[in-house]
Specification:
Layout (H helix, E strand, L loop, with lengths): L1 H7 L5 H13 L3 H18 L1 H4 L29 E4 L11 E3 L10 E5 L5 E6 L2 E8 L23 E9 L8 E14 H4 L7 E9 L4 E6 L9 E6 L2 H8 L15 E10 L22 E15 L2 E2 L11 H37 L1 H16 L2 H12 L3 H12 L1 H14 L3 H8 L4 H37 L10 H10 L9 H28 L1 H5 L1
Parallel strand pairs: 1-13, 2-3
Antiparallel strand pairs: 1-12, 3-6, 4-5, 5-12, 6-11, 7-10, 7-12, 8-9, 8-11
Helix pairs in contact: 3-7, 3-15, 7-8, 7-10, 7-11, 7-13, 7-15, 8-11, 9-10, 10-13, 11-13, 12-13, 13-14, 13-15, 14-15
């Protein structure tokens, strides 16, 4: 019997009975359930922001040109290019396969050793590919005839390259293309010690279309620093045309019907002197007697092709990811709204309890301060305080809390004045209870129910205040905020540029979050307020 009571006793506890009774009444109100559901979604959005938005949410971080439309709008423009990463394996997670020569339909992540030289080799590691040229004194290089030399192709028939294949599904060329790669170059032996050692080879990047046309977009130049470093390549209009034009249909025909483009990264000897010679007579080069090696380590290869569309919600006036800023903006709104309301509620409750319980001069002094703050226009005062204290999140919370406690203090004061003359308070005084004990142990629990509804509505005011300050440029410009998004869109002419998404979605988020707290607060007021519940 004792076990049964022990297991079931928690269901008979006052807190459980009260909570279950409250929920039973709360769920009868449809607007309250809707508000609580929407609010829960915002909380999940704020907590899971790093999962839902992978891009940097900083308003100053540029990921693409400004005011690109959301990618889903491409359904109205099938030929429009979506700005995106088009390299199939930017982090080189797939083990490359070694083949003898370049085929007609290249395989992604493939290493090709061209020619018959045994000096070239490759190695694959965890997320990187090493291309190595090991040269011994007297080794021959199969150079091309002068008539065969092409500035877009290697100088020798012997070279090694690592390729990735891009499939292009659009009928238009990208407006711009940027490549980024992390590479490290290691020189050993004479290639490290001799002055010309660093110029005896090239690390190059080519675009090769399915017709076999080569376009060199990058070649390396010494000096080479130790370690892996990032290289950024901005393709010119001529590079883009050479790589993509063959995949565009013109007059019913297409030069490259396979719609694929090969990006090749190669290590090749360099013909510095370009003297007239036989391909089998390499000894005109003084460095042919060098002994050493060159290793190029490739870690990441990224290619961003730009078009008029980007991501889930497009880009902002500064080229930032609007989706990431919208998701992370929920953190700012919820943090400031909840913390500012908590601080203002704590101040308001203490002032209201003291003024209502003690009355007299204390009540008079505190209420005159409340009247003074209520008379002063709220927004101008917050603007002055925000400009004076600085635009940090902590200061914005303090600024909003300074003006947010007055209503709470009046509400609590009126309730305390009604409670302090009741019999249970007189009984507590009669047995010698202190004023502090009576206030916090007896009176506060009896005025708390009406406080909950007031808190939820206070969060709405705090969220709107933060959005207003952000819109006026008085919050931290490095922090993503819905109000900041609206301010940036307004200053840069979002609507006039047709970028309606940078205005509609932040405004919608502010409205939905405010409505959710309003619905929850109104329902709590109906459940906890006996007069409203009787109706």
């Amino acid at each position: 019997m004792s076990d049964y009571v022990e297991k079931g006793s928690w269901k008979d506890s006052s807190w459980y009975v009260g909570l279950s009774g409250f929920w039973g009444e709360y769920r009868k109100h449809r607007s309250g359930v809707i508000g609580l559901t929407v609010l829960s979604l915002f909380v999940v959005m704020a907590i899971g922001a790093p999962i839902f938005a992978l891009a940097d949410p900083s308003p100053t971080n540029k990921v693409a040109p400004q005011f690109l439309a959301p990618a889903w709008m491409q359904v109205f423009d099938p030929e429009g290019v979506v700005t995106n990463e088009y390299m199939p394996d930017p982090h080189l997670n797939v083990n490359p396969n070694n083949t003898e020569q370049v085929g007609d339909d290249p395989v992604p992540n493939t290493v090709y050793i061209n020619g018959t030289s045994p000096n070239f080799s490759y190695a694959y590691g965890d997320g990187h590919v090493n291309l190595t040229w090991t040269h011994h004194a007297g080794d021959q290089i199969w150079w091309k005839y002068p008539s065969q030399l092409d500035p877009n192709k290697p100088d020798a028939n012997d070279f090694i390259m690592f390729t990735q294949v891009i499939h292009w599904d659009y009928d238009t060329m990208p407006s711009d293309v940027n490549m980024s790669l992390d590479i490290g170059v290691t020189l050993a032996g004479d290639f490290y010690n001799e002055p010309l050692g660093g110029r005896m080879f090239k690390f190059c990047i080519w675009l090769i279309d399915s017709s076999g046309n080569w376009q060199k977009i990058y070649d390396s130049e010494p000096p080479y620093q130790p370690g892996v470093q990032n290289r950024r390549i901005d393709l010119s209009w001529f590079d883009i045309k050479a790589g993509w034009l063959g995949m565009m249909e013109a007059n019913g025909t297409q030069e490259d019907p396979k719609d694929i483009l090969t990006v090749a990264m190669g290590l090749t000897p360099t013909d510095l002197f370009r003297q007239r010679r036989s391909p089998r007579n390499p000894y005109l080069h003084p460095w042919m007697n060098y002994t050493g090696s060159v290793t190029v380590q490739i870690e990441t290869v990224s290619m961003i092709a730009y078009g008029p569309y980007y991501g889930l919600l497009g880009t902002t006036d500064k080229g930032g990811d609007a989706w990431a800023q919208l998701i992370y903006g929920s953190r700012i709104s919820l943090t400031i709204g909840i913390l500012a309301t908590a601080l203002s509620t704590a101040v308001g409750v203490i002032v209201g309890l003291v003024a209502g319980y003690f009355g007299g001069k204390i009540d008079e002094a505190l209420m005159r301060i409340v009247d003074f703050l209520l008379v002063i226009p709220g927004l101008p005062l917050m603007m002055v305080l925000a400009a004076f204290l600085g635009p940090t999140i902590q200061n914005i919370i303090v600024v909003i809390a300074i003006l947010g406690w007055t209503g709470t203090s009046r509400l609590i004061r009126s309730q305390v004045m009604a409670e302090k003359n009741k019999a249970y308070v007189e009984s507590a005084r009669a047995i010698g209870a202190s004023d502090t004990y009576i206030i916090f142990r007896h009176i506060l629990p009896n005025v708390t129910p009406i406080l909950f509804a007031n808190i939820t509505l206070g969060v709405v005011a705090a969220i709107l205040s933060e959005s207003g300050l952000a819109f006026l440029g008085l919050t931290d410009p490095s922090q993503p905020s819905w109000g900041r998004m609206l301010a940036d869109a307004q200053s840069a002419g979002g609507f006039s540029n047709g970028a309606w998404w940078v205005v509609v979605f932040p405004g919608m988020m502010i409205t939905l979050l405010s409505l959710s707290f309003t619905f929850v607060g109104h329902t709590m007021d109906q459940v906890l307020n006996p007069r409203l519940r009787e109706r």
